[in-house]
Amino acid sequence: MMAEELLRVENLKKYFVTNSGLLHAVDDVSFSLGKGKTLGVVGESGCGKSTLGRTILRLHEPTSGKIFFKGQDITDLDKKAMKELRRNMQIIFQDPFASLNPRMTVAQTIQESLLIQGIFTKKDKAGLEKRVRELMDLVGLSPRLINSYPHELDGGRRQRIGIARVLALNPEFIVCDEPVSALDVSIQAQILNLMQDLQDSFGFSYLFITHDLSVVKHLSDEIMVMYLGKMVEKAKAKDLFRNPTHPYTQALLSAIPVPDPDFRNDRILLQGEISSPIEPAPGCRFAARCRFACDKCKGGDIPLKEVEPGHFVACVLSEDMNQGGSR
Amino acid sequence: MSEAVKKTQRSLWMDAWRRLRKNRLAMIGLGFILLLVVLALFTVAVDIVTKGTFYDEHVIKQNLRLRLQGPSAEHIFGLDEFGRDIFLRVIWAIRYSLFMGTVAIAISVVIGSFLGAIAGFYGKVTDNVIMRIMDIFLAIPSMLLALAIVAAFGTSLTNVLMAIAISYVPTFARTVRASVLTVKDQEYIEAARALGASDARIIGKYIIPNCLAPLIVQASLGVAGAILSIAGLSFLGLGIQPPTPEWGSMLSNARSYIRDGWHITVIPGLMIMLTILSLNLLGDGLRDALDPRLKN
Amino acid sequence: MGSSELIRVEDLEIHYETDDGVVYALNGVSLHVKEGETLGLVGETGAGKTTLAKGILRLIPSPPGKIVGGKVFFEGEDILSYSETEMHKIRGNAISMVFQDPMTSLNPVMTVGDQIAEVIAVHNPDLGKEELRERVIAILAKVGISSDRIDEYPHQFSGGMKQRVIIAIALACNPKLLLADEPTTALDVTIQAQVLDMIQTLKKELNTAMILISHDLGVVAQTCDRVAIIYAGRIVEEGDLRDIFKNPRHPYTIGLLESIPSLTKETKRLNPIKGLMPDPTNLPPGCPFAPRCNYACEECSKAVPELEEVNPGHLVRCIRIDSVEEVR
């Protein structure tokens, strides 16, 4: 299973200064991602999953920790070197309505990637157009849309433009920040298939950020569950669904409505709502909502424990929990 | 693939124009402004062709025998207190009001949007310094500021122009800063950053084109304000000096004869009013046409 | 029919007249809901779900919207023929609606208590101040909000809590019918579970009927009694929960179910419906789904098929049901 490592993140932290204190958006997250693999990052709003993706790309500057890309430490690279590197590390955004410049046509949007990175020059009109048409074809956009503006297109097509723009650079690593959550079910399936096909043909590695567990299960090799900036569980996709061990993962899994009237899971209804990520109390951040919480949870940092090979859980009760996996 | 996009491509600008065309009041406003522009160009052409002799003979030359004559077939707007044709004077005056108003606003749009864009994009200290200076300007009534400048540097065309331009800079700086702040947080800006685009490219290709709409609206309303200011300054004797025809000064001079001939005050007053009304209607129409929330 | 019928919509047709032409949002929708029953209305963006709900309450903005034809019978009375004053008495009282976005549905400058009290006061003008407050506290308790938050403002509430307040407002007058337009779409999964659970409990307690509009088949499967699938302004399939999920007959329903990545089964590749929804200003002449349908034949694009009963209570609008069955 050990594919060649492409990306490694070590103890990454990103804090934001707010008026009411430090916001711990990403707090001490470590993982590594192999070539051609997909790591799913799951969590609810405010868990820091989007910040994680953007910090890895240095769209936000990390507070501390290290990011290695192909063995090179990129945490402190200067602007120029980073620009060079952006050819290899890209991002697909969630909202296909907000992530495209409304004043640029499809062709202009895709050209931007090629021009900014200097892959083509402005003078090479024919070459540019040929490449744009190739890319449009790859993502399944009809050539007659080449001069359309984003507001004339539906969400699915816009998302295809977003993918073509990234594909133009032929990157090795792509952060996918909820790329299908704004789309209708039938269109969502089309885009997911497209992303899978592109991964198969170009060997991309994805960091797939989503709140939708069924999507992440479908696509990912490994899944990481985040809660309030912390990684609470990480395992191979199959293991996570077979044996969810952290109480939060269990609650999250049981909360998904399954489209099958016969499927009655015993829903674990969490009490309360996600607390604030600003100046969180020490100890497990889930403790306030956890039905198993005890004094041990409120002590210091909760270390990650390996409960089975490749399956890590940050819970003091993980040993007892392991037997009670609900699925 | 499918039939959903059968319409021809059209940019947001063309969409806006299509919506504007449906707004009857705005189109009337636009029509009147265009009529003024055509008339103004016509007078300029006449001046060039006749080398100014027509101007001297019919617009400037006094004919006291016929003073205050009412409208007639020969002089449709009548004659003024010095026996000059009011129609000719009114259309010869267009260039001062419309041209100066537009130039003054153009200058303040350029300066204002530059300052506003810098303030909005870089934020923090830059923002604070620029916007506090703008606040100081805003604290002085614009008419008073213009008066002070003209009083200090003398009454000349350029001074009037500069005075009005400066008094409008803060308005445009604020407008642009506000829209830069909203646009700056859009995901497509982040996408451009992720592609490695430079600040200059982001400002030029992403931020400015998306901030233009409110600026255009503000500018069209600004021109109306500027014309009013020019007329006001001239009325007070600080703008364009007689015998050069200008609506404000025509109104001011005619004021003493208001009981002797209604037309000499009403006509220039009406011109000012109609021009301002047209520009405001057009500005309101543009606001509706350019607002993406009203898109259907 | 067991319990009595509460609402019946007959051939409702609603169009929007826009710059780009007439948008055919609803093209003859008929459905009914019995007392205490939950009907799930499933469809994608632009299928006409929200238009239907707003049409029932006559909240279609006009212009550009226009109710072109059809009838809506509520407890046997045609409410489309009601005057605006009579409608006021029905809205928020006998029929109420919950909108999708909890962030923008509440008035930010009024306390939540006042907002709930306002609805009650409108429909019960004789209530005194004290009684009103008691009623508000009772309703807040029902939706799981403690009474000491009654004087707080919406911005002090989280998204899930706001949605509870909105549901409290909707239920304030014990409506007979609740129209819930994607009530949990904007919420996180764990919060969604809480809110859905609460809606279920309250519905049972108050015997309120509900039309739950959703694009999420999971939510529908876990909450509804019957389901109607809407596509391009027409119901294409309608039946009991089990009919739809266990024995779907319309190719669109089948396609929708196959598009969702399954949590319980292993699938290598999804099986999406090809193409896009037709442009509602320019609907194809025959079955609107025909251009995307794998089973379509020439006949399909000639006329819109009728809704046929394949089993008692299970209606399908497709002329190719038999061949669909064979291929599957």
Task: Explain how this protein is built.
The complex is a heterotrimer of chains A (327), B (296) and C (328). In chain A, the strands form 2 sheets. An 8-stranded mixed β-sheet of chain A has the order 6-7-8-3-9-10-12-11, sandwiched between helices. Chain A has a 4-stranded antiparallel β-sheet with strand order 2-1-4-5. Chain A contains 10 helices and 12 strands. In chain A, a hairpin with a 2-residue loop joins strand 1 and strand 2. Chain A starts with a strand and ends with a helix. Chain A has 2 domains: 5-88 and 171-323, P-loop containing nucleotide triphosphate hydrolases (Rossmann fold), CATH 3.40.50; 100-169, no CATH class. Chain A has helices at 49-56, 79-85, 106-116, 125-138, 155-167, 185-202, 213-219, 237-242, 247-255, 318-323, and strands at residues 5-18, 21-34, 38-42, 64-69, 72-73, 89-92, 173-177, 205-210, 222-227, 230-236, 305-308, 311-313. The model of chain A is unreliable at 322-327 (pLDDT under 50). Chain A is globular. By secondary structure, chain A is an alpha/beta fold. With 296 residues, chain B is an all-alpha fold. Chain B has 11 helices and no strands. In chain B, helix 10 runs antiparallel to helix 11 (262-290). The longest helix of chain B has 37 residues, at 86-122. Residues 1-9 of chain B have low confidence and may be disordered. By secondary structure, chain C is α/β, with parallel strands linked by helices. Chain C has a domain at 250-328. Chain C has helices at 49-56, 84-90, 112-123, 129-142, 159-171, 189-206, 217-223, 241-246, 251-259, 321-327; strands at residues 5-18, 21-34, 38-42, 65-74, 77-78, 95-98, 177-181, 209-214, 226-231, 234-240, 308-311, 314-316. Chain C has an 8-stranded mixed β-sheet with strand order 6-7-8-3-9-10-12-11, sandwiched between helices. A 4-stranded antiparallel β-sheet of chain C has the order 2-1-4-5, with helices on one face. In chain C, helix 3 packs across helix 4. The two termini of chain C are 32 Å apart. Chains in contact: A-B, A-C, B-C. The interface between A and C is large, with 40 and 47 residues.
